[in-house]
Write a structure and sequence with these properties.
By secondary structure, the chain is an alpha/beta fold. The chain contains 20 helices and 18 strands. The radius of gyration is 30 Å and the shape is elongated. The N terminus is likely disordered.
């Protein structure tokens, strides 16, 4: 039976073409039928590369007598694409409008008998999958990666991602290769937020671009790497720590943004209750003793220590820190980067620092008994020592020091203040509204002896300012333990953690949970945040 070929219905593009022509005509742009053109500006197209032509939907038609290039574009009003092409070919551009089908037809014609960039990239991916652990990437592949890293799409993507991260107040950028695309997530106010994915064709170029900037080995994709790079974004100097780790679809990259301009190092801005802040300032001005700040990763411990140093900093004091890594540069303070790989550990650096006539010493973290012993002895011999530990609360820090092997008599003689802290998200002031707590929250609070009927609680419903999250920014909630004579006696008497905690509460120490509830009653945060964090 003979098949009858029916006439197809007109496409949406055909129906709208006349209207689009009229719109572009108001800008003086002409529509061109690329299918009737015998030849294109192939040399210019090769310089631009097939990937860029495909990505921005452009085709160079011809070189004009004045040296400019006529460019056919699916969207001739795309100023970003025009700027990118102009940067690549370094020529002036005149534009015409062409259908997307015509653009794709022309690109296929130009690159049909060439080694298309996409094919080269696909070959590279296949080789990567087949690499044996002992094999090395050949020089041709490295050259391709370098080329991709400097191609306009990769450069523009990385730059725009950084600008967006700064505008969104992100602390981390996650670039995660998936099977079909490049997943992008930003950590904003401590929570990861997903953004539209990027085309998978950008993957190699974007990753190579970041690795080159961070001075990493672009040829090594089998082991994790760490690097650092400085950017100037919107006039602000931004320090970025880059970490790579190999995954099944390619290397995942995390970029930690250290934006000193967005962090307040004023101790008055940290959110301490006024009476506790006065006592903390008093202890910070002491000539001896140890101030410990504890909490999980990302709870703002380093910011608290920097704020204390910033508060006491003066030309009359010799302040030295040893950190891994040095996150922020502080004027007037001597900062040392620990390098365990060459033997410069916290302990060895601390020994050397004590021979530098310091008044105040900050140790990034007490990780082992050796560092703890040196820090404690320094606090007993005329130095103020600041450091951090990873414990859940202030009393647990005492137990941790005892378990590490520090003598109880040294603890009571050296430690003056322990600050346990968390960061909670602040309710967006633009869309804050009172709420009725859910049954789950009521049940949780009842178990903890909290009566929710006596106060009004709030939650952000989501708005443009907070991108629909209901939160804007973060602040600290703290549990501060000042070493009183009663607590010292309990430590010497080998009292339990529970007994020490009871004495701390009796002396006025608010737990992180209780202080969080205090802030929730003031409408600064939500009950959900307190349950999540505290």
């Amino acid at each position: 039976m003979e098949l009858v070929k029916q006439k197809s219905a007109p496409s949406i593009g055909t129906i709208q073409a006349e209207g689009i022509t009229e719109i572009y005509g108001t800008f003086g742009l002409q529509r061109t039928n690329l299918k009737v053109i015998a030849s294109f500006a192939t040399n210019i197209a090769m310089k631009i590369s097939e990937e860029v032509c495909q990505f921005h939907r452009v085709v160079p038609i011809e070189e004009n007598e004045d040296g400019s290039v006529m460019l056919a574009m699916a969207d001739p009003l795309d100023m970003v694409a025009l700027q990118i092409i102009r940067t690549i070919i370094k020529k002036e551009i005149t534009t015409v409008w062409a259908d997307l089908d015509d653009i794709e037809f022309a690109i296929g014609s130009i690159f049909s008998d060439k080694n298309a960039f996409e094919d080269t990239l696909q070959d590279l991916v296949e080789v990567e999958d087949e690499l044996d652990e002992e094999e090395e990437i050949d020089e041709d592949s490295i050259d391709i990666l370098r080329t991709q890293a400097t191609d306009a799409p990769a450069v523009v993507f990385v730059n725009s991602l950084l600008v967006q991260a700064i505008q969104e107040r992100a602390s981390d950028i996650h670039i995660e290769p998936q099977e079909n695309d490049l997943r992008i997530r930003l950590r904003i106010d401590g929570m990861l937020r997903e953004f539209p994915p990027a085309n998978r064709r950008l993957q190699s170029g974007v990753i190579a671009r970041i690795k080159i900037l961070a001075d990493l080995d672009i040829a090594e994709r089998r082991v994790p790497q760490d690097g650092r790079v400085k950017f100037k974004v919107m006039g602000r100097s931004i320090d970025v720590r880059c970490s790579t780790i190999p995954g099944i679809y390619g290397e995942k990259i995390v970029m930690r943004i250290l934006d000193q301009g967005s962090i307040s190092l004023n101790i008055d801005d940290l959110g301490f209750e006024e009476d506790k802040l006065i006592q903390l300032k008093e202890k910070s001005r002491a000539t001896t003793g140890m101030i410990l700040v504890t909490g999980p990763t990302g709870s703002g411990k380093t910011t608290t220590l920097y704020s204390i140093l910033n508060y006491v900093n003066s030309p009359q004091l010799n302040i030295i820190t040893v950190e891994d890594p040095v996150e922020y540069r502080l004027a007037g303070i001597n900062q040392v980067q620990a390098r365990p790989g060459v033997g410069l550990t916290f302990a060895s650096a601390l020994r050397s620092i004590l021979r530098q006539d310091p008044d105040i010493v900050m140790v990034g973290e007490i990780r082992d008994l050796e560092t703890a012993e040196i820090a404690v002895k320094a606090a007993l011999t005329g130095h103020l020592v600041l450091s951090t530990l990873h414990t859940n609360n202030s009393v647990a820090t005492i137990i941790r020091l005892l378990n590490m092997g520090i003598d109880k008599y040294l603890i009571v003689s050296s430690v003056s203040v322990i600050v346990a802290q968390r960061l909670v998200r602040r309710v967006c002031s633009n869309c804050r509204e009172p709420i009725e707590p859910s049954s789950d929250i009521k049940l949780f609070m009842n178990r903890h002896g909290v009566d929710l009927t006596k106060h009004t609680y709030y939650k952000g419903k989501g708005c443009k300012q907070c991108s629909g999250s209901g939160y804007w920014g973060r602040f600290g909630i703290h549990e501060i333990l000042f070493m009183s004579s009663t607590i010292k006696e309990l430590i010497i008497a080998d009292a339990s953690e529970l007994d020490i905690r009871k004495a701390a509460v009796a002396a006025g120490t608010l737990s992180i949970f209780d202080e969080g509830m205090l802030r929730a009653r003031r409408g600064l945060t939500t009950l959900d945040e307190i349950i999540r964090v505290a």
